[in-house]
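Customer escalation, tier 2.

The customer says the design service returned an amino acid string that "doesn't look like it belongs to this structure." They asked us to rerun it and document both sides in this ticket. The original structure tokens are below, unchanged.
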């Protein structure tokens, strides 16, 4: 399983996520220190009811905890959007 799919799987499982999309943006960072050391650059969208009642920092902490084994090794940088199912529904086109 490639890194992107591994990250998606880990987030789905750990956060009981309704929707997860991970994009590998490592190719945009060729030559960057983290890229040379093997860590990838990723962007993630995670939709989980576990984010209900949590602020942005608390949500990010949940994501980082879910990816603790990958951070610093497989993942050098991670940008994320964390939404509740209601927020996800409100953002989707009708």
């Amino acid at each position: 399983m490639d890194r992107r799919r591994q990250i998606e799987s880990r987030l789905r499982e750990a956060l009981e996520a309704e929707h997860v999309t991970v994009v590998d943006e490592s190719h945009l960072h060729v030559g960057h220190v983290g890229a040379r050391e093997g860590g990838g650059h990723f962007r993630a969208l995670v939709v989980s009811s576990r984010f209900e009642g949590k602020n942005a920092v608390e949500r990010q902490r949940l994501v980082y905890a879910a990816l603790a084994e990958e951070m610093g090794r497989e993942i050098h940088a991670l940008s994320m959007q964390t939404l509740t199912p209601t927020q996800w529904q409100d953002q989707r086109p009708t």
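Tier 2 assessment: The sequence is consistent with the input. The chain has one domain: 3-87. The radius of gyration is 14 Å. Sent an explanation to the customer and offered a walkthrough call.
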